[in-house]
Amino acid sequence: MKPLNPIFDKQIRNESKVNNSHNIRKKPVTKAEGRKERCDKKKDVKVPFSLSERQLIKQLAKNKGTDPTPYCTQLIKKAMKEKYIFPEVIYDPKGKPYPVKLEGYFHDQLFEYKILWDCSLKEAAYRILSFMLHTEVRNRLWTK
After folding, report:
1. pLDDT tens profile 119-139
2. Which structural domain, as residue segments, surrounds residue 67?
3. Which of 33, 102, 119, 133 could join 106 via S-S bond, C-beta 3.0 to 4.6 A?
4. What is the CA radius of gyration of the chain?
């Protein structure tokens, strides 16, 4: 006698296992076989700042109505678009970092500065940001 519920029919269940074997996903072996990466993916650079610099960034970001991370990102992008000449600064990698989220184009430009100045990405980003912070403070004092 055939069962009323098809779940209990052993013959149909065994056939379904055989038919769906092509739907099994194979695990990727390399990254190229895995998921594709978005073309507009942002890359993080964590830039270390001293306590006084962090306080200044928080204050300037609040005045602009943003958070520190997007503010730092905006400053680096503005500096790279304007093609400033950045003076050398003393870099201390022991500070607490703020992340800067850059698109591929700006990350490549930062990499070019890294090669030009023979330093790390963090140090190049710090050099640019410290110059821009001094510029922002000077402009803020000038407009008051």
Report:
1. 999 999 999 999 999 998 888
2. 43-143
3. 102
4. 27
